[in-house]
Protein backbone atom coordinates (compact mmCIF):
# COMPACT_ATOMS: atom_id res chain seq x y z
CA UNK A 1 0.00 0.00 0.00
CA UNK A 2 1.40 3.38 -1.03
CA UNK A 3 0.87 6.12 1.56
CA UNK A 4 1.90 9.77 1.44
CA UNK A 5 1.91 12.44 4.15
CA UNK A 6 -1.12 14.05 2.51
CA UNK A 7 -3.05 10.76 2.70
CA UNK A 8 -2.25 10.38 6.40
CA UNK A 9 -3.26 14.00 7.09
CA UNK A 10 -6.59 13.54 5.31
CA UNK A 11 -7.30 10.24 7.05
CA UNK A 12 -6.56 11.66 10.52
CA UNK A 13 -8.17 15.04 9.85
CA UNK A 14 -5.02 17.01 10.67
CA UNK A 15 -2.84 19.42 8.72
CA UNK A 16 0.12 18.23 6.68
CA UNK A 17 2.77 20.02 8.82
CA UNK A 18 1.61 17.99 11.83
CA UNK A 19 2.08 14.77 9.89
CA UNK A 20 5.47 15.96 8.62
CA UNK A 21 6.66 16.54 12.18
CA UNK A 22 5.42 13.11 13.24
CA UNK A 23 7.10 11.50 10.22
CA UNK A 24 10.36 13.24 11.11
CA UNK A 25 10.24 11.91 14.69
CA UNK A 26 9.26 8.40 13.58
CA UNK A 27 12.10 8.45 11.06
CA UNK A 28 14.57 9.47 13.78
CA UNK A 29 13.40 6.60 15.99
CA UNK A 30 13.73 4.11 13.14
CA UNK A 31 10.05 3.22 12.84
CA UNK A 32 9.37 4.85 9.48
CA UNK A 33 11.18 5.66 6.22
CA UNK A 34 10.25 8.43 3.82
CA UNK A 35 11.14 7.24 0.33
CA UNK A 36 12.56 9.45 -2.45
CA UNK A 37 9.15 9.57 -4.18
CA UNK A 38 7.48 10.94 -1.01
CA UNK A 39 5.80 7.70 0.03
CA UNK A 40 6.06 6.35 3.56
CA UNK A 41 7.09 2.86 4.59
CA UNK A 42 7.28 1.17 7.96
CA UNK A 43 10.61 -0.34 8.89
CA UNK A 44 10.85 -3.79 10.48
CA UNK A 45 10.94 -2.06 13.87
CA UNK A 46 7.82 -0.09 12.95
CA UNK A 47 5.99 -3.23 11.88
CA UNK A 48 6.90 -4.99 15.13
CA UNK A 49 5.67 -2.02 17.13
CA UNK A 50 2.40 -1.87 15.17
CA UNK A 51 1.77 -5.56 15.86
CA UNK A 52 2.44 -5.14 19.59
CA UNK A 53 -0.03 -2.30 20.16
CA UNK A 54 -3.18 -4.27 19.28
CA UNK A 55 -5.81 -3.31 21.82
CA UNK A 56 -8.35 -5.73 23.13
CA UNK A 57 -11.94 -4.46 22.67
CA UNK A 58 -12.64 -5.41 26.28
CA UNK A 59 -10.26 -2.64 27.29
CA UNK A 60 -12.67 -0.08 25.83
CA UNK A 61 -15.68 -1.71 27.51
CA UNK A 62 -13.86 -1.78 30.84
CA UNK A 63 -12.84 1.85 30.50
CA UNK A 64 -16.42 2.88 29.66
CA UNK A 65 -17.73 1.03 32.71
CA UNK A 66 -15.10 2.66 34.92
CA UNK A 67 -16.04 6.13 33.66
CA UNK A 68 -19.74 5.38 34.19
CA UNK A 69 -19.02 4.22 37.76
CA UNK A 70 -16.96 7.35 38.38
CA UNK A 71 -19.82 9.56 37.15
CA UNK A 72 -22.33 7.77 39.41
CA UNK A 73 -20.03 8.12 42.43
CA UNK A 74 -19.56 11.85 41.75
CA UNK A 75 -23.31 12.43 41.40
CA UNK A 76 -24.09 10.48 44.57
CA UNK A 77 -21.43 12.33 46.57
CA UNK A 78 -22.66 15.71 45.33
CA UNK A 79 -26.27 14.79 46.15
CA UNK A 80 -25.23 13.59 49.61
CA UNK A 81 -23.30 16.81 50.18
CA UNK A 82 -26.29 18.94 49.16
CA UNK A 83 -28.70 16.87 51.27
CA UNK A 84 -26.54 17.32 54.37
CA UNK A 85 -25.80 21.00 53.82
CA UNK A 86 -27.23 23.55 56.22
CA UNK A 87 -30.41 24.93 54.59
CA UNK A 88 -29.66 28.41 55.95
CA UNK A 89 -26.54 28.58 53.75
CA UNK A 90 -28.61 27.71 50.71
CA UNK A 91 -31.15 30.45 51.45
CA UNK A 92 -28.40 33.04 52.04
CA UNK A 93 -26.81 32.31 48.65
CA UNK A 94 -30.07 32.82 46.72
Draw up the topology in text.
Layout: E1 3-4, H1 5-12, H2 16-28, E2 32-34, E3 39-42, H3 44-52, H4 57-83, H5 87-93
Antiparallel strand pairs: 1-3, 2-3
Helix pairs in contact: 1-2
Summarize the structure.
The protein has 94 residues and is mostly helical. The protein has 5 helices and 3 strands, in the order βααββααα.
Radius of gyration: 25 Å
Class of secondary structure makeup: mainly alpha
Low-confidence stretches: none
Q: Trace the largest sheet across and list its strands.
A: 1-3-2
Amount of beta strand: 5-15%
Query: Roughly how many Å apart are the termini?
Result: 65 Å
Q: How would the global form be characterised?
A: elongated
Mean pLDDT across every amino acid position: 88
Key structural traits:
5 helices; 94 residues; 10% strand
Task: Give a structural overview.
With 94 residues, this protein is mainly alpha-helical. It starts with a strand and ends with a helix. It contains five helices and three strands. It has helices at residues 5-12, 16-28, 44-52, 57-83, 87-93; strands at residues 3-4, 32-34, 39-42. A three-stranded antiparallel beta sheet has the order 1-3-2. Helix 1 packs across helix 2. The chain is 68% helix and 10% strand.
